[in-house]
User: Fold these one by one.
Assistant:
Number 1:
Amino acid sequence: MLHPGFIRYYEEAIHTLAASGHQVNLAFEISRDKLGEDVTAQRIAASSPNIHCEPAPQRTESVRDFLARSDRAAVRVADEQRARSRQDAWESLATTVRLLEDYVRFFDAEFRDAGTLRRRAEKRLPGVYTDVLEVAARPALSRRAIRGLLQGVETAIPTLPAIDAFLRERSPDLLLVTPLIELGSQQVDYVKSARKLGIRSALCVASWDNLTSKGLIRVLPDHVIVWNEAQAAEARTLHGVPADRITVTGAQTFDRWFAMRPSRSREEFCRRVGLDPDRPYLLYTGSSVFIAPEEVPFAERWLLALRASADARLTQLGALFRPHPANSRQWHTFDLASFPNAAIWPPIGTDPNSAGFKEDFFDSVYYSEGVVGINTSAQIEASILGRPVFTVRSAEFAHGQEGTLHFRHLVDERGVVRAATSLSEHVRQVASTLDPSAAATRNDDFLKWFVRPHGLDRPATPIFADAVERLSRQPRPIARRDSLWTRTTRPGAFLLARAALALAEGRPLWVYVVRQPMTTAMRAAALRYEAKDLWNENARPVIKRSRRAIWRAWYESSQQLSRRWQRSKKRLLRLARGVRPSIR
Amino acid sequence: MVRPDWSDPVRSGIDLLTAAERARSISGAICVLDGMREAPPLAFADVPVVRAEGSRGAWLSARWNVTSAARETRAWWRDRAGSFARELHREWRRNAGDDRLPFELRQRLRAIADASIVRARPDIDRFPRRLLRDAPTVLQLTDVAAQARVVLTAHGVPVDAPLVTFESRTRADIASAAIDALRRDGYTVAWIGDRWDDWDAPQGLVDLTEAVERSPLLQMFALAASAFVVCESVDLQQLAYFTNTPSLLINAKEPFMPYPVTAKGLYVLATAIDLERVQPIHIEQMFTEPYFRDIRKREARGRRRGSFGYRDNTADEVVKGIEELRAGVASNWTDESESQRQFRARVVEAGAALAAVSPHVVEWGPDAGFIGDGRLVRFQADRLS
């Protein structure tokens, strides 16, 4: 798993597998505690002796991490020298190639309205690549050639010894990877290592947007486990996965929604969240920061539109707002004081691991008259409970609605969401569902198609667990060693790896040209300082000592001479004194 | 010589004022090159205006084009040189961080890097507050009111009642409350600028949002014909300086940029909320360096929210602001309170202190100690004092 946050998609399945006696080893690429993910990992590890959590082998700073750093200028030459180890260069090339593949995919015809998705991928890449690809990736033929080239380079990148050792040591019957499709994902190396070691591998598609709004499955695992036929089609057409490798299990993450029951009475719940229990309410479910970076003004307009309606039933409706757990901060600006019978629940910043969090969410949906949202999985959850689900197509969220492919699953002819093009149309839609004649009915067709393709009465978790067991029982695939051609091209690819490492900084090309002469000049300047130090430390004391010795010798000899002279002078004087009387 | 670009009336106005000041300093005249046909005729209080026509006009126009191209090239070059100096700075710093180099050399490299980044700092065009203070007296848009009436009538604006221009993307209930208050006092309200796609205009409101997109000049005419303007956009507030229209700016996010230059201006600060501490911040906190660093960061990253979020002014605050604006117009702006004077002094003082650390304050802060003759609305200034 990329981080422990992905446990929530598979929690029940992991418990099921552990209960059947399987050893489930969870390895996390990165640790994360933003939404209490670290607590989730500790909790699941403590729940069964068959479940183990551990960090995946530590990786050096990849291009992706480097690009995510706020201060890219803070590169010290010493760090850079350290990073220029052979392995780091390969890692940088791997990440660069994968980011490029992800970026190029968004030029495909399917993504013509997904400008924001493309820009998100573009932001991760140094400008030197995007400047070229912006032009080169537009024609389909050229795009295909670029993809072929990038896949060729990917093949030439060797597996990481640390990951090889990690997998060899654990020798799993089946390697499951999720999500794998993050932009520039490093998890691809696990699939490559598994291939090399003859370990069966499978990608578990974690969520409904994974195959359309993120990166590509760059190296195909042996199997791909998806929720439904829609995702199976996406895997085939957008990622080139052969049909025989795809297993459809249903959306195991939603199983609990079929089984759950409210944790308290409606009156109790309404009083707890601060709504009038005598009046019906609508639930507004917040979307992620990518979909709705500025959601509060829209939510305010939405509530105003309801309250301004001529229909008394709508003006008296309560409104419960449920911010997206990872996009809740902005809701502090929501002016609850100006809207009677409106509430935000759970309180902003509530830990998703806290007791009662899931129950609260379930109760919020269960007791609501309908659920409104921009584009969020809460809309699917609401459809499981048979609540009418609404959305409003708004220009400010076009990138997160029409600009994403997964939104179409919600609103197209098989979808479950009633989409309005304006708030006034939306208000009419809500009013129509409040008619006593229009009793809420569950859209079973949607659920059969999207959530439980094996039957509404068949939970997806056991099917998922069965599929995993079945795959793990299959014979190990033949270990695929590097071909002669791959080994031959590797030295050339290593030069690319060095270049990728250097270019990851995203600096203008002239910087790379002047860098070496500049470094050489620094070395030359350092020589001067070093020579000075050498002089000060070694030669100078010797000279000083010699000068002192010479001076001392000179001084002592001169003193000696002087003394001799004085002595001679005295002797002469004495002699002269002795001669004088004789003269007298 | 000046060629106003009326698609950006504020920029054009500043260019004209700059040209007038220069002409005055050399006792010369201003030559206005061909602008748009529907632009209002221009006159300056103490600077003659000459029109360039015929071969002389063509010659001056050619000279203008060459000079403009040279100016753009210089700006491009400055930008490139700045970028080069920044990259070079990074390279010096990179080497300065190499602990294998002798300490003295690294110290020297650090000093060189610091010197090179000084050269990389972009020139910040200070907002010319002093120049704009005299805009209504220096730059006279002759017959603009009459021309405005003609244009507005063509757009279906009734000009028999006093007109108020309203521009904001605030919540519909707040806007409606303000518009209702204005209409009760007998004003016709014209809505200009951007608006929400799904916004239903209140009854009796003249919606010029579509028309304004077609002609930026219409904004100027709407302001010229208005008794006053209530706006959220700083551009519109600045345009009001040229048409000598009293203005009330609402939902101001910080104290410097929207501070009104002329005495006929008021502004109301939005409620800023510290999203980390989850509490509204005191106005005094808006005078701190971290606050402006957050604004700068948001601008650089193209995000609307950083560490602070904003809650729009309430209907009550907007209506109070409108009442104070009307009182100001009635008293000819002689009713400034002590707390408002103190706030102005505080802005000037904070501007001087923050100029060293915040490019945003350098750009929008006091111009040689002058922030403006306008004021913060009284109820907020009183709260601060």
Number 2:
Amino acid sequence: MALSAIDMQAVAARLAGDEVRGRSPWADARQRFGHNKAAVTGLVLLILVALYALAGEWVAAWPNEEIDWGIMGKAAEMGMPALANGHYFGVDDLGRDLFARTAQGTRISLLVGVVGAVISVVVGTLYGAISGYVGGRTDQIMMRIVDILLAIPFMFVIILLLVMFGRSLTMLFVGIGLLSWLSMARIVRGQTLSLKAREFIEAAQATGVPGWKIILRHIVPNLLGIVAVYATLLVPEMILTESFISFLGLGVQEPLTSLGKLISEGAGTINYGTLWQLAFPLFFFVITMFAFFFVGDGLRDALDPKDR
Amino acid sequence: MLSYIVKRLAIAIPTLLLLITLSFLLMHAAPGGPFTYEKKLPPEVLANLNAKYGLDQPLWRQMISYVWGIVAHFDFGPSFVYKDRSVNEIIAQGFPVTLHYGALAFVVAVASGVTLGVLAAIFHNSWLDYLAVGVSIGAQVLPNFVMAPILVLVFTLWLRWLPGGGWEGGQWQYVVMPVIALSTSYMASIARITRSSMLEVLTSNHIRTARAKGLPTAVVILRHALKPSLIPVISYLGPAFVAMITGSVVVDMYFSTGGIGKSFVDSALNRDYAVMMGVTILVGALTIIFNLLVDILYAFIDPKIRY
């Protein structure tokens, strides 16, 4: 008897001692993401690219708009990347410092991508959640609108908008905003439909929580994982769209620049032996795209409940 | 089946009308008219011009006559910049070229993508599989406007095998690079989709049965596994087709092939709204028709689809 009393005490002490610490789903996801080498590499690259985009112009020896008159017109002979004259990435066709311009272009491209993703998150999530939660005829009409909009060749419409209302950054955001939320709305609606059938939503309805509050407090937080994944995958798509338009010379205008525009300028001069003008913007474009794809994939593995 | 097609048409037609109306209204909302020049025209001349092009009529009349012209006569009206040419003539000039290399790129992307995907799935976890996965990840970040300069750099400037641009009636050496530039990233997507769906199909019961009854591997793959694993690929063909038409804009600009994309960008730079709208509507119509065809094809191939 005495023995068993000591046992019990030991058990009680152990129970009191190491309390098992619970892990939240987010901590789980963080751990899964951390084990994914490609995703972590992508994240590190992304941070580096973002640092360059933000601080590059500050580090650069030349401002992005200033023409180096000593080199202008002799870009092929004297404008190559060099540490001595401060043009780390060389100069562009007009003799402007490519290091500063690439930093500026990367910043604009990232900005376009992030703005597109933010619009898609806000508009797409709300639209999809409302459509899925309300259901019935409203749902059908709302989704039919999305179907119709998805069938429109948006690249052409964005160009149409840019040409007609001026090629400003604002107009570019409007165009990309019009396009970006559509697929997000579809995904969110599908996810909402399955959430709606769960008990905790029924409980909320039974206790008389109003519909908009259920959507905002109970549906949307449960969508965050999938929304984060698709928003990350949307960023490179938006960057691609913007670069495409800028490549055609229809995107942002001087003195602004973007990666697509720099690639276009570099591609226009490959005949003259100034390969660095193509290589550096192309390098940052490819690295950024890769990084976003890997981070997106890693997030999907970490957060998407379907793949667990 | 018929009701399914009718239902799809019921979405397609309003979409097209909406697109036409939308681009028409956009054109009207745009600041500046087609006759806004640096030098101002005398008011009498402007009035005459407006009367000639029907711009003095109320908006709804203009809209109806524009939409009617397209729907009934396939007539996109006159160009605003080239006074002696109609939008139809401009489109008729560039469209065959676009269609020529666009169709080739489509065939190349589908054929090579499916082959690569199937091989990767059959030799799962071999070097071939890794190669296919590597290629498809790499090609994802090499869209047409990145591929085009790289191709010119390699094949024209370094190897001197191919001309850097031009069309010359579609001789093969002028077609190669546009087709590669246009098809790479779609080939990669198709390969990825085929690989994953093939992997799934290969583990299914009917394939095990086919193997168990002693069919040769080639027959198992070609007769029993290929068809079901192509279903997701077919649903990707709609978006891929659209993307290729869009991508042709870059090809036309970079390789000077003289297709419809060139007319589009030129009209965008010239503010020739009539041509821009014509091309947008044409591409929109093609998109809608192609999606419709893919949907119908889909329903034919996959007996599980209920309509």
